[in-house]
Amino acid sequence: MSTTLIVAIGLMLVLEGLLPLLAPKAWRQTFERMMTLKDGQLRFVGLLSMLVGLGIIMFAHHFLAN
């Protein structure tokens, strides 16, 4: 496993931990709302999240790396 991948996973965990650390009530309410979504709606949220993440990666690669 490359160092970059390990660092990326670590950064993802740090960012995911910010909301429960800083706003646990909002984090809990968000998950309660997600529990009421249907499978198709959750899949759409997951797909949208992946596409936004991919867009950020592509932006950083093309415009910030140079």
From TrEMBL:
The keyword Iron does not apply. The keyword Transmembrane helix applies. The chain crosses the membrane at residues 6-23, 44-64. Signal peptide: none annotated. Keywords: Membrane, Transmembrane, Transmembrane helix. It holds the Pfam family DUF2065. PANTHER family: INNER MEMBRANE PROTEIN (PTHR38602:SF1), INNER MEMBRANE PROTEIN-RELATED (PTHR38602). This is DUF2065 domain-containing protein. It comes from Methyloradius palustris.
